[in-house]
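Most newcomers find our protein records easier to grasp once they have seen one. To make this concrete, we reproduce a full record directly below:

…
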Amino acid sequence: MRVPWSASRECQSSSSEAVQLATSSKQHYTSLSSKCAHSVSLGTVRLREKGWVDQCMDERHCPVPGICCRLTILLLTFDCRVFMPNLVPPKIPDGERLDFDDIHRKRMEKDLNELQALIEAHFESRKKEEEELMSLKDRIEQRRAERAEQQRIRSEREKERQARMAEERARKEEEEARKKAEEEARKKKAFSNMLHFGGYMQKSEKKGGKKQTEREKKKKILSERRKPLNIDHLNEDKLRDKAKELWQTIRDLEAEKFDLQEKFKRQKYEINVLRNRVSDHQKV
């Protein structure tokens, strides 16, 4: 049992007094062992009065709870010094000595392994990034080639469309030129026929007397239709209404004129078609 340093010093300072107390209570301390022994004798009470007995640290084994064995510690210390021989502590065999070079070498190997692992991880990451970059470049090149092919196909289709449009335009121009030439030929023929018919009409007019010409008839009709426009006595609102009325009249006349022109064109086309059919029938 190891004795605290404070107890040893206390024992040394009061050894004579402790011997007297131990002698008066010798029959109560003969059975003390290495464990904590407890006393209930008069000596214990006297020690407690002097402040040498403190509260028990292990009340489970204490016969008198609350009273500890500082006296026991003093007696054991005194008895060990007086009656027990000096014990030599056993010699602890030396273990393996620390090899700092080996520790340094192991630490260097550990650092080297960690560095090697970091380098390998870096190169693996770099290799993966390079592979991704190459894959991205391949996709870009493939997409660029696809776009170039699409552009080529689109340009070829555009060229074909332009060629068809040019061919269609040339065909239409040729057809229009042919129709125009045929129209000119028919006009010349009709004009020659009209000349012959005009000579015949002049002869008939000479025979029938002098008649009004078409121009004179037109002037007469216009003079009958034309009415004088008296607007001097009209105010602003009535002038505005009059202008709207004239504008509506002009619009109606223009619409009628357009309808007559279209009708004339249609009749003229039908006449030309009939003449062509007659000429084709005569050729056959």
